[in-house]
Amino acid sequence: MSHCYRQLRLPEREALFRMKAAKLPVRKIAAELGRHPSTIYRELRRNYFFDEDAYFRGYFPSVAHKLARDRRVPGRKLERNPELAHYVIDRLRSCWSPEQIAGRLRLAGHSGFRVSHETIYRYVYGAAGKQQDLYRLLPWSRRRRRPRGGRKPRGLKIPLTNSIGQRPTAIARRDDFGHWEGDLVAFRQVYGKSNLTSLVERKSRFAVLWRNPSRTSAGVMAGICGQLGPLPSALRQSVTFDRGTEFAAFPTLRSELGMSSYFCEPKSPWQKGAVENLNGRLRRFLPSDTDIAAMDPAVIAAICAQLNSTPRKCLGYQTPLEVLSAEISRHSE
């Protein structure tokens, strides 16, 4: 008997039907087919045909083969459950990722209303999903699934000081709150020099976004001081940047807020992965051809609020706002 499991083929199901009609015991049938008895028991249980009018009931090989084949169609669970499919599509339209949808269902404890993120992806990229163009609702809106790839690294822009290698290991482990990562989100030059500064708190993944009129370092640092200044001192301990010239005035953070600054190694922006992830999520709402200078600041604030109110797998499917609010409340007591 092979140790590599194979699905039953139609000829095997036809032989099973004949032997069952001859009233052979299941163990005898399994031995004849070279299968484990549990495989036969499972086949008879899962592919038993039950007619509501009671005219036809029993195990029929062609029907059993069709039932088994239909179960293997990608995303089939959502096709069989329109209510669950409607819930998934509604959350996709709310800019939730498949993992966030699946994780939130597990967190809610609905035992009969649960689906894996892989099933959602298969449904989106299956026949039913293609008819509805559901791929457009995914975070990256790709027509086909593909492995992730990093963006091209940036060059050396500032001196090799305060390297990320000097950063305490507790920050890397996300043991404490108050350690941030920062970056600049650029747009097409045809719209001018306006850009966004993006900050994310490493432990809670709480994001802060605001618009800058230019890339001058003094203006960027002034914006960071204005955004993080109202927070308790325990929630503004350090910030990690890449080596872009827009962060050259980092000593301002030490003098104004008492925050330490660390920098990625040259050509290694991936070392500040939290803010890179945030920027990727942000591009869903603000692609590179957005005229950010003409955008109402309230719209930017609304996008930021939506990101902070979306459950995250790394937080046990809590939202960044829930996690950081609980920490702020603890410091207010």
Task: Give your account of this protein's structure.
42% of the residues lie in helices and 10% in strands. It is α/β, with parallel strands linked by helices and 333 residues long. It has three domains: 62 residues, Arc Repressor Mutant, subunit A (Orthogonal Bundle); 62 residues, no CATH class; 169 residues, Nucleotidyltransferase, domain 5. A hairpin with a 5-residue loop joins β4 and β5. α1 packs across α4, α2 crosses α3 and α11 runs parallel beside α12. About 2% of the residues have low confidence. Keywords: DNA recombination.
Structural descriptors:
15 helices; alpha/beta; RNaseH-like_sf; DNA recombination; 3 domains; two-stranded antiparallel ribbon; Nucleotidyltransferase, domain 5; about 325 residues; about 10% strand; five-stranded mixed β-sheet; Arc Repressor Mutant, subunit A; elongated; Transposase-Integrase
Short description:
The chain is of the alpha/beta class and 333 residues long. It is 42% helix and 10% strand.
Radius of gyration: 28 Å
Q: So, the CATH homologous superfamily of the largest domain?
A: Ribonuclease H-like superfamily/Ribonuclease H
CATH class of the largest domain, named Alpha Beta
β content, as a range?
5-15%
pLDDT < 50 runs, ≥5 residues:
149-156
Average pLDDT taken over every residue: 87
Q: What structural class do the secondary elements suggest? A: alpha/beta
Q: How is the main sheet built?
A: 5 strands, mixed
Helix content: 40-55%
CATH architecture type of the largest domain: 2-Layer Sandwich
Listing every helix as H and every strand as E from the N terminus to the C terminus, the arrangement reads HHHEEHHHHHHHEEEHEHEHHH
Specify the number of helices. 15
Envelope shape? elongated
**Termini separation:** 66 Å
CATH domain topology of the largest domain? Nucleotidyltransferase, domain 5
InterPro entries: Integrase_cat-core, IS30-like_HTH, RNaseH-like_sf, RNaseH_sf, Transposase-Integrase, Transposase_IS30-like
Keywords: DNA recombination
Protein name: IS30 family transposase
Pfam family, one: rve
